[in-house]
Amino acid sequence: MSNINVLISGSGIAGSVFAFWLLRAYPNANITIVERDPALRLTGASVDIRSSAVDIIKWMDAEQEIRNQTTKEEGIEFVDANGKAVATLRATGRSDIQSITSEYEIFRGALAKIFIDPIIGRVNLIFDESVDHFEQRDDGVVVTFTKSKESKKYDLLVGADGLGSKIRGMMLNSKPQEQLYDEGVHVAYFTIKSDLLQGSRLAKWYNATGGRAVFLRPDPDPAGRTRGNLMNVTTKGDVEMKDRLNQAVRQGNESYMQLMEELFRDAGWVTPEVLQGMRESDDFYCSLFGQVRSSQIQHGHVVLLGDAAYATPGFGTSLAIIGGYVLAGELLSHAGDVAPALGRYEEIMLPFAKASQGGDNAMQLFNPQTQWGIRIRNAILAFVTRTKLDRLAMAGASALGFTEKKAPMPEYQWPASSSPDTLD
Prior knowledge:
Pfam families: FAD_binding_3. Residues 4-354 form the FAD-binding domain. It is a single chain. It contains 14 helices and 20 strands. By secondary structure, it is an alpha/beta fold. It folds into 2 domains: 5-66 and 106-180 and 292-358 and 406-418, FAD/NAD(P)-binding domain (3-Layer(bba) Sandwich), CATH 3.50.50; 184-288, D-Amino Acid Oxidase, Chain A, domain 2 (2-Layer Sandwich). The strands form 5 sheets. A 7-stranded mixed β-sheet has the order 5-4-14-15-16-13-17, sandwiched between helices. It has a 6-stranded mixed β-sheet with strand order 7-2-1-11-20-19. A 3-stranded antiparallel β-sheet has the order 8-9-10. Helix 2 (52-59) crosses helix 10. Mean pLDDT is 88; it is low at 392-403 and 418-424.
């Protein structure tokens, strides 16, 4: 099916990577990307690239451009209320064994642009529009759009529309929240128009009681800026606080900023400057920090991709890249026969995504509720880093041949002459 007709809902990283590889497989593919925003969303927090996704960006000839646009972050310092470093975890300088700071630490907007630029002239981009509903048929899926009310038939509908995926809800005939595992974590992201790190390339992580955390990360902009995050980690029993945070997210940016000013006003460290920077920022956004855990990511002629399918904080970008590659590869391997291709994609990605999502309490452990808990965590981190156990463990893993867990990706026979434009 060399002229396969595909609709992708969402113009982010997952959808763009999939479109790139589908055009490699089928140069005559008819690809439409529908985006609810009025333009490409080229903002966002720092993301990283790990595991098999590192191989994929190399195959896309994107690695060098990504390295050129990384944040240049050299590691992360855990600091106390006086700004004193209690532990420092540095980047490894390697792509196969990485620390908290990746070798490919890059802002989401920059990465999204790198991925969409090579395909932007080869796909049909529709902005300020979304999928209202769809109807499955034996030979395709009929999609009706929200604003135009127009209905069109496609061979495949790809839901790459994020954590709260509307496509996921319709495909599974459920509310999108039903597949969302709420870790009790909410995060605000924004750019501070001054350099609170004073030229340092080390990010800083500060915790206050009540599961509050302040993150400052370097920005490579020569004007001198800082990327700020405010994170709230609530316990499972604190339903009232969780409800307040969820309501503020729903009500929008102003409501959430007011809540952050209330909750963080006595947090200590440089939080007053961070709150002021939050108020003056022009790229503020906030969201729930959760996982998508679904036992099904495809049905008929509809498939889920990226965060819509298997959102995983800390590894979601890598899963989006891997998923886009695998989905296109399976459509190639099955000669455009949608049903078996989607089935095989699901068989490959779901187990790997589940293994990558890990345990339920990681964020709680790293962001204690009490001052005593913060002291214990800091003491453990200080011991590990001062005795260089972290570096020793990484060196040992390398010597024994253990590197980052990779998805068991098949080898696809990509047509050599049909590659989309590279990123050189």
